[in-house]
């Protein structure tokens, strides 16, 4: 990893910003990612996740701020970082007209692996990621899940200390996503640190620590469990026969943070528990009999609460 000090951050970022003309994509970001963490970036499109990942692997120069990855300062020492870093992009980026094995062989040559080590690693990865029977198949003809497994095999071929993944499961089915995450935990067990961006709440809950980004700002950073325990709001289930009408009545009511219909019920996030009585009375006045039942907080509640505040910086994209 990063020398003999396992407590030293694998990634240390201070005041990181990136501007594209008048648009502020990342704004004064501070991060510490520690060894063997699965550190998640959660945020909507345009929140700065991909831009941050590209700066962390040296592909994009920051406008301002400090980046240290595996003890190396970026962008100055980006070249020396390449052999210790794996990067998997959101879109499949391997050669579609090469076979599975040929793609891995090409990447091994890029990383300078010996012929014997190349042979060993390709056989190991074909077996580990269920690609053995596909070794001679052209990459462009693989399914979404198969392409994902090949991309991961390519990203870890050279046994990197740090793996950066940019929304790696956005185009695959739920079963492939579950298998992919099992593979990630195998890598952390072997000593790899992982930073992964996602917009799936169930994936975010799997992370050991989670950063929530909103329009370039870091708005939350802790373990998923602690984020849910510290939720600045109270989730309620509205049990009634007319959830759609109840939602229309409760929209824009003071203290109501979010509303979502879940099956035959309405789920609501409110600012505090003192709102239960006035909201019940508001529904009753509209002719809707309902029961408001406290519910358990989930990560979607945290996300909604963390990203609901309007933020508009001079020059920031609306």
From TrEMBL:
Q: Gene3D superfamilies recorded for this chain?
A: P-loop containing nucleotide triphosphate hydrolases
Give the superkingdom in one word: Bacteria
The alphabetized UniProt keywords are:
ATP-binding, Nucleotide-binding
Give start and end of each ABC transporter domain: 11-240
Instruction: Write down the SUPFAM superfamilies for this protein, in alphabetical order.
Output: P-loop containing nucleoside triphosphate hydrolases
**InterPro entries, alphabetically?**
AAA+_ATPase, ABC_transporter-like_ATP-bd, ABC_transporter-like_CS, P-loop_NTPase
Q: Kindly name one Pfam family recorded for this protein.
A: ABC_tran
What PANTHER family does the record point to? ABC TRANSPORTER G FAMILY MEMBER 20 ISOFORM X1, ATP-BINDING CASSETTE, SUB-FAMILY H, MEMBER 1
Q: What is this protein called?
A: ABC drugE1 family efflux system ATPase
Name its species: Litchfieldella qijiaojingensis
């Amino acid at each position: 990893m990063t020398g003999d000090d396992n407590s030293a951050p694998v990634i240390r970022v201070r005041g990181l910003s990136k501007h594209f003309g008048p648009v502020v994509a990342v704004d004064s970001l501070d991060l510490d990612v520690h060894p063997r963490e699965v550190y998640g970036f959660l945020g909507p499109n345009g929140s700065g996740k991909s831009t941050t990942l590209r700066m962390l692997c040296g592909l994009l120069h920051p406008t301002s701020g400090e980046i240290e990855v595996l003890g190396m300062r970026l962008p100055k020492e980006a070249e020396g970082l390449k052999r210790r870093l794996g990067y998997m992009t959101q879109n499949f980026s391997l050669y579609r007209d090469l076979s599975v094995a040929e793609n891995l062989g090409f990447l091994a040559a890029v990383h300078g692996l010996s012929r014997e080590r190349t042979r060993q690693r390709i056989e190991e990865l074909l077996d580990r990621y269920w690609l053995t029977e596909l070794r001679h198949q052209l990459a462009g003809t693989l399914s979404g899940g198969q392409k994902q497994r090949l991309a991961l095999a390519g990203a870890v071929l050279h046994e990197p200390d740090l793996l950066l993944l940019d929304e790696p499961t956005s185009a695959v089915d739920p079963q492939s996503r579950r298998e992919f995450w099992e593979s990630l935990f195998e890598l952390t067990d072997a000593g790899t640190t992982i930073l992964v961006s996602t917009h799936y709440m169930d994936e975010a809950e799997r992370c050991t620590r989670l950063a929530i980004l909103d329009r370039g700002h870091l708005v939350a950073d802790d373990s998923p469990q602690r984020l849910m325990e510290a939720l600045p709001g109270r989730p309620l289930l509205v049990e009634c026969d007319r959830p759609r009408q109840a939602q229309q009545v409760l929209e824009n009511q003071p203290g109501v943070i979010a509303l979502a219909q879940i099956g035959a019920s309405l789920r609501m996030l409110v600012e505090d528990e003192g709102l239960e009585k006035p909201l019940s009375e508001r529904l009753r006045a509209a002719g809707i009999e309902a029961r408001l039942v406290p519910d358990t907080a989930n990560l979607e509640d945290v996300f909604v609460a963390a990203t609901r505040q309007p933020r508009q910086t001079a020059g920031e994209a609306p």
